[in-house]
Amino acid sequence: MIKTTLLFFATALAEIIGCFLPWLWLKRSGSPLLLLPAACSLAMFVWLLTLHPAASGRVYAAYGGVYVVTALLWLRIVDGVKLSAYDWMGAAVAFCGMLIIVAGWGRT
């Protein structure tokens, strides 16, 4: 389960970076060259999703829980926004949901 969780975090980072760089270009007058690493990051995101042994729907459902945690950590670390207790509680619930789904892989 640790390997799956770490893979999900890498996947979430690839997706967030792939979306953040075009946002910088469009909203913060960044260079259009940001689109090149963004495209590579999004391609890596898709490839990482294919590395899981479960059915795609289960992978997407479980991935969502880790994405929530990663997005909130990005908000705190990169954007410098202080997270509320509700943010942390929601992240914990989402992460527990991922753990439950992954624990059931191969048991159905």
From TrEMBL:
<feature type="transmembrane region" description="Helical">
    <location>
        <begin position="33"/>
        <end position="54"/>
    </location>
</feature>
<protein>
    <submittedName>
        <fullName>YnfA family protein</fullName>
    </submittedName>
</protein>
<keyword id="KW-0812">Transmembrane</keyword>
<feature type="transmembrane region" description="Helical">
    <location>
        <begin position="6"/>
        <end position="26"/>
    </location>
</feature>
<keyword id="KW-0472">Membrane</keyword>
<dbReference type="InterPro" id="IPR037185">
    <property type="entry name" value="EmrE-like"/>
</dbReference>
<keyword id="KW-1003">Cell membrane</keyword>
<dbReference type="InterPro" id="IPR003844">
    <property type="entry name" value="UPF0060"/>
</dbReference>
<dbReference type="Pfam" id="PF02694">
    <property type="entry name" value="UPF0060"/>
</dbReference>
<feature type="transmembrane region" description="Helical">
    <location>
        <begin position="85"/>
        <end position="105"/>
    </location>
</feature>
<keyword id="KW-1133">Transmembrane helix</keyword>
<feature type="transmembrane region" description="Helical">
    <location>
        <begin position="60"/>
        <end position="78"/>
    </location>
</feature>
<comment type="similarity">
    <text>Belongs to the UPF0060 family.</text>
</comment>
